[in-house]
Design goal:
Blueprint (H helix, E strand, L loop, with lengths): L12 H7 L1 E2 L2 E2 H13 L5 E4 L4 H15 L10 E6 L6 H20 L4 E6 L7 H7 L12 H21 L2 E4 L8 H9 L7 E3 L6 E4 L7 H9 L10 H10 L32 H8 L6 H13 L5 H4 L10 E2 L14 E2 L5 H20 L9 H12 L11 H9 L15 H14 L3 H13 L9 H9 L6 H13 L4 H8 L1 H4 L1
Parallel strand pairs: 3-4, 3-6, 4-5, 6-8
Antiparallel strand pairs: 1-2, 7-8, 9-10
Length: 507
Amino acid sequence: MTVKEENFIFPDHLSMIQDYTIAGRPLVDLVREIQTIYCSDDRPWIIGFSGGKDSTCILSLIYMALLQLPDDKRKKHVYVVSSDTLVETPVVVDMIQRVIDTINESAPQENLPISAHSVVPKTDQTFWVNLLGRGYPAPNQSFRWCTERMKIHPVSEFILDKVARFGEAVVVLGSRSQESASRAQVISKHKIDGSALSRHTSLPNAYTYMPIENWSADEVWMYLMSAPCPWGGSNRELLELYKGSNQGECPIVIDKSTPSCGNSRFGCWTCTVVTDDKALHGLIESGASWMTPLLAFRNKLYQSRQPENSEEYRNFRRRTGRVTYNSGDISDDSVQEVRHIPGPYWLSKRQEFLHELLTIEKGINDDGEAIELITRPELHMIRREWLRDPNEPDWEDSLPGIYRAVYGEDLDWVEDDAGAFTRADSETLEHLSEKYGVPAALIRKMLEAELQVSGLGNRRGILNSLESILQRDWEDLEVINERNHSLRKRGKTYAEEVKEEFSEFLH
């Protein structure tokens, strides 16, 4: 349906602004407030744009407010920033990118100082590098490691860059008090008396402005659907997306007080914080059946996180090489059983996950949908993490083979990334391990430590490295549990015992 075919209440955005009253306030009055605050100083504005209804509403209001200003008063820049975690729901990513492209095309034509930008997490902090590369378990309520790395940091860095350049900045958000009681509390707490601005909760010299703070969700939709967008087009696609999924959007996250996507709003298709991803279900049922494999893969990640499946999916050692237990119980001798805390995903499971993810990606593309579920820089970073894994170094350098098995071609792999050992070396160590009763992984780590200083005149630190390796938990979990229980009774730690036992060799 084209814009001309839609039945708008108003023929253009300006007519709506001049006529409507929302939340007890004429829209023309709100637009004047936006213009007044914009013209009052030289601080640049940053609009947090998530692609959802509230941030689209904010973007429309500010675009319209600047459009009604004379050219000589459009003095300072307005940056529109959108956070792409690289695992966003694909249809939402596409829609956001279209809006960003439209803004960047139309704003210069209208002589508006507006530019739209998409920020992404650093390659070594993406979802897949952490989950597949380092083996982090899929996020849940108690260990939601994703939000800060993938959402808060990229947007915060963008804001802080502007603060460093201009001294201060104003972040314009689509936050509303009616979203939640906790959100209303945060908004009220940081308000500056006598000002429409609030102090940013965590970023110094940054302020927030929330023009639709008192609007209801129905009023937001009334605004969005009553007239064409000020940059052209309509919000029909956005409305259909909401109707299709029965969900709300994931807000732009700039601090820990901003609600994340834990209630299954539009956000990451990989989100395992919720039991059931209703947004994906709704989109698939509404016709986007090509996303069915994504939902199945997301559900597999969710199951891998459940306690009853930890033995199958997760190493009993942490990335430190040590077996750890629930703190508190471990110091109570009256408790016979303490809760073991599992570590990262087994390397074999990460390899399976990656093979399946690439297979899904290729299948979707072969069926005509252009999509990149995992970036190629992420694959290079994951390969590096596997080669240097603290528990299970990938001596076989398996990632290029996994990619080749799915795509039938090679990427430009960096040869220097390959490990120092081969599959044959690994098999030899396993044989010697069985013969002499010494864990193969222990010998492997000690050889790697030696290779790191091989050829160096200064071998300072090698003894400390070897001592640290020896203090790791190398036995089977059952043996480790028995040993630690015995040590607790004697009031000793495993590190102390190792130090005593090998003192003459290490010093």
